[in-house]
Amino acid sequence: MNNRDCITGKSLSRNDLIELLSLENPEEIEQLRKNAENILLSERGNQVYFRGLIEFSNICRNDCYYCGIRKSNNKVKRYSLSEKQVVDAALWCAKQGYGSIVLQSGERNDSEFVDTVERLVYVIKEKTVSAQLPDGLGITLCVGEHTFETYKRFFAAGAHRYLLRIETSSEDLFSRLHPQTQKIQSRIDCLKYLKEIGYFVGTGVMIGMPGQTIESLADDILFFKKTGVDMIGMGPYIPHSDTPLGEKEPSGYNNLLLSLKMIAVTRLVLKDINIAATTALQALKHNGRELGLRFGANVVMPQLTPKEVRKEYMLYDGKPCTEESRDDCSVCLKKRILSTGRIISLNNWGDRVRMGNDQP
Ligand code: SAH
């Protein structure tokens, strides 16, 4: 397939995706970038949406081999923010005009945790209704695998988006990245529940993990399509030295470039969805997030986690922005976005508009 043809509307085959993800020639990569950017601009315009990120707890029952806050990493000081800390961060976000927040944490499924999340959503919704935001802040949850009933409770409390990364759609690779007790099928089931309930559903993968292939990444994009997602949050895999995977050989890929190509190709396939330029891109290059936007992303997630605990939410080594305050992050990110020629959309949830047949 000709790279120049990929915006003609024909549906891309698996081989096309592999070919595009394999591009190495800088001119061809620039063409791919432009094609993705053009699709974004025509489908969604040049607005960038903010999702203020609050990492409210790093306590986790899972033991993913790549993740810095895995249960077995006993070097991590565990924390949970108080309700007041989370609500204050949300109110600050609303005041900035960010429009939406993401509440993220390690995975727990005990009733105390479920009650806490439900209450946080309810209280934040209640306190953020204003003339600018008549329905309050848009709330995305990113708190892992739960039962259908629990997801329903969170939805009833007012969360309308949910982010659950599949991490990889390859069953074989998934099983090499997680203990036996964590199953890919359980994550797939959760994505189904979330859609059925009516959430805007997001997923995503890590890019450039040991043992991952270009073919497998192409399959990930086909998985996003099959799942009918509204949002994607994905970024480069970055080793964490206190994890089992951190000791393994790197994949040999240029994970930044591969991540940018993944963003662009995902944009070509799923034209009107929201795609985040994730923080991990910036861990690999100072302007990584701007590059993400230029390759077809349209969402950024400014850090709102209180500075005192940011260092305890180290998913990978060298996670950026752990020394900055939320005010620093706000100023810095605005500059970064404007440098790409895009505009910032304030006081707006910024959801994708669903068409008739993709209603849950
Ligand atoms: N417990 C929640 C949130 C997990 S942390 C959930 O499972 O949904 C958010 C994401 O960080 C993970 O989904 C994973 O994709 C990413 N992450 C973890 N370790 C990483 C690493 N070493 N490099 C890059 N991303 C990582």
- Which assembly state applies to the chains in this document? single chain
**H and E string:** HHEEHEHEHEHHEEHEHEHHEHHE
Strand percentage = 5-15%
Helix content: 40-55%
What value does the Rg take, in angstroms? 19 Å
Biggest sheet statistics: 8 strands, parallel
Which molecules other than protein and nucleic acid are bound?
S-adenosyl-L-homocysteine
Mean pLDDT: 94
Q: Report the total helices.
A: 13
Global shape? globular
Protein described:
Helices cover 42% and strands 12% of the residues. It is α/β, with parallel strands linked by helices and 360 residues long. Strands 2, 3, 4, 5, 6, 7, 8 and 9 form an eight-stranded parallel beta sheet that branches. A three-stranded parallel beta sheet has the order 10-1-11, with helices on one face. The protein is globular. The mean pLDDT is 94. Bound molecules: S-adenosyl-L-homocysteine. S-adenosyl-L-homocysteine binds next to loops.
Write the SSE topology.
Elements: H1 14-21, H2 26-44, E1 47-50, E2 52-57, H3 83-96, E3 100-105, H4 111-128, E4 138-142, H5 148-157, E5 161-163, H6 171-177, H7 184-197, E6 200-203, E7 206-207, H8 214-227, E8 231-236, H9 255-269, E9 274-277, H10 279-284, H11 288-294, E10 299-300, H12 307-310, H13 326-339, E11 343-345
Parallel strand pairs: 1-10, 1-11, 2-3, 3-4, 4-5, 5-6, 6-8, 7-8, 8-9
The structure holds S-adenosyl-L-homocysteine.
